[in-house]
Amino acid sequence: MLTFILWCILFVLCWPIAIIALFLYPIVWLLLLPFRLLGFAVELSFDLVRNIFMLPFRILGAR
């Protein structure tokens, strides 16, 4: 919602830049998508390593 309000303000102030931003936003989103997926994979890898490391402590703490 905040992005839309900022875009509306930009549209009032300088409508050509707002129209260009409207068309470039999906292209930029598609270009950044692989980096988001890579970040998700790295985060899952770190979670897996942390859970493997913490497993003995969880087993001992359950008693």
Describe it.
This protein has helices at residues 2-13, 15-61. The model has no long low-confidence stretch (mean pLDDT 93). With 63 residues, the chain is mainly α. Helix 1 (2-13) runs antiparallel to helix 2 (15-61). It starts with a helix and ends with a helix. It is elongated and about 65 Å long. The protein contains two helices and no strands.
SS strand fraction: under 5%
By DSSP, the count of extended strands is 0
Instruction: Provide a count of the helices.
Output: 2
Mean pLDDT: 93
C-alpha end-to-end distance: 49 Å
- Spatial shape: elongated
Q: Helix- and strand-based class?
A: mainly alpha
Q: Secondary-structure element sequence?
A: HH
Spans of at least 5 consecutive residues with low confidence = none
Helix content: over 70%
Biggest β-sheet strands, sense, barrel: none
Rounded radius of gyration (Å): 22 Å
Provide the fold topology.
Elements: H1 2-13, H2 15-61
Transmembrane segments: 7-31
Keywords: Membrane, Transmembrane, Transmembrane helix
Short description:
By secondary structure, the protein is mainly α.
Keywords, separated by commas or semicolons:
63 residues, mainly alpha, transmembrane, membrane, 94% helix, single chain, transmembrane helix
